[in-house]
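Re: the request from the purification team.
They wanted to know what the chain is likely to look like in 3D before they choose a buffer screen. I agreed to run a prediction and write the result into the notebook, where they can find it.
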Amino acid sequence: HAIMGPSGSGKSTLLCAIAGCCDRKVGLRGDLRLDGAAVDAVDAAFVRQQDVFYPYLTVRETLTFAATLRLGRDADVPAVVDDLLRKTGLGKAADSIVGDDKVRGVSGGERKRLALGVELVLMPALLVADEPTSGLDSRSALEVADLLRRAPATAVASVHQPGARVYGTFTDCLVLAPGGAPAYSGAAAAAPGAVAAAVGAAVPPLTSAAEYLLDAAADHGAALAASVRASGAFVGAARRPASWHRGRCRAGGGSRFAPLLERAWLNNRRSPVATYAALGRSVTMALLVGALYAGSRGSDGQDAVSDRTGALFFVLINQAFSAMASLRVFVDERAVFEHERRRDAYGTGAYFLAKSVAELPFQGLFAAVFAGLSYVLVGLRAEAGAVAAHVAFLVGATLAAESLVLLVGAVAPDAKTAVVICPVLLSTSLLFGGLFVSLDSLPAGLAFLQQLSLFRWSFAALLKAEFAAPDVVFTCTDADRAALARRVVDAGAPRRLLAKLARGLPCPTPDGETHVARVLGAAGAARSLAEDGLSLAALVVGFRVLAYAALARRRRADPSRRRWPRSTGARRSRRICSSRSWRRCATTFWSWAGPCGRRR
């Protein structure tokens, strides 16, 4: 069944109202009926106009994970996948990666057929596709249209400028006039003749049926709408598949965490941004840091104090702002999550936990490579405990920055907004790191922001690991004392005392503990490394909890989410929870709101 009409006639809006599972806020009055029975949104599978896939998975893997997530591991997933590959004609491309706009993969027609195959996993009662043939050549468009015609479900699709052969696959068609009024509703084969009779103009020679219908709807929309105003329902002889099970994931099937983790791991491992580019960036920046601060290697003079302090802060800045590379990737993946979550393929918690666990090894490994290599090249303190603390806290700072990036990606409405917000938050955190401004002199209204600065806790820990040890002492030359004396005179001391001060002043920075107290203040220097580590860990956990809450809120605020009536099972669960044992309550509640429940 095809929906046609000029641009702006409301084809996509109508499909969203029918399917109830897209990102447009539309209202639907009345009942959608199939075989005489009312059909609600959970019966419909929706294929977006823009395909959303993990680009580095193969076609077979994409279908396998779709079947595993939606049917559960108890199903015969390989058989389901082989059947879908045969029905969609994707057998030859089964082992090719899907790709996207930046990564070369399967063709546009194959991607569209894959999108249809993913939705056909659940054998929905109604398959709704938004312009599945747009942007395809005539051959690919015909293959997609033929797949829709042969689909084991009632297929409804909006089609823009279909060719003659594509139009020949339509059973029924609805033609919308500008403004959304129906200009024709009925059998596709009879449409040109019926419209020609209504407007009193024959079909011109060498004009396709679709072209004539669209021109007639644009030129005679009001007259055609008046002629079909009293017509019946658009979908006539719709069929309900024998294996139909309401278009959502089947009850049972176990946790979705394992397949989600496997899918995220495969996609990350194959992504050049997550592997080769990240490793190359870590090595390159470590070499650059080593070259910049090589002059302080092995030195215990006063210049080494400022050089090593600057090196510590620089490595933090590098790791924090490098985390922004994963921002756009996450925003793109979020579209996949939101589409699959509308189908109740899995819960927000399972997805977020799987994504976090899959990314931790990559983030931790590359941060450790950068930390270890830069540590050796700069020539920091050669002591096992100091090295371990440096690597651990730099990895922790990287995870905190990645967690903040996840939070921004979950909150921001789109990638462009996220790219603007993220540097602002990281720069604000940078200002409260303790190097550029004394934390003890902050205004009262801004002092609380230092608690949220990942730079504050990580920089304090790196500084203590490098300098806060009894054996860290620094030598002082006459030039160092003379420079300190000049600063004292510039501050207001009599100039005639310059020579005397140069001989009698102590070393500007005699040892590492003095330097730590001078940079961090008495309170910051008094904190232990464990306290700094716990504060940094709290930021990692806090940012990720907020990111999870933001994703869950996006789900609750989804305009397509329907407010289902309270079920008998829900009322029964509440009664059991208030009157029976906790074990019975938990068992009953999970059977109602488990992996495939509507109300998670």
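For the purification team: The two ends are 33 Å apart (CA to CA).
Please add any questions underneath this entry.
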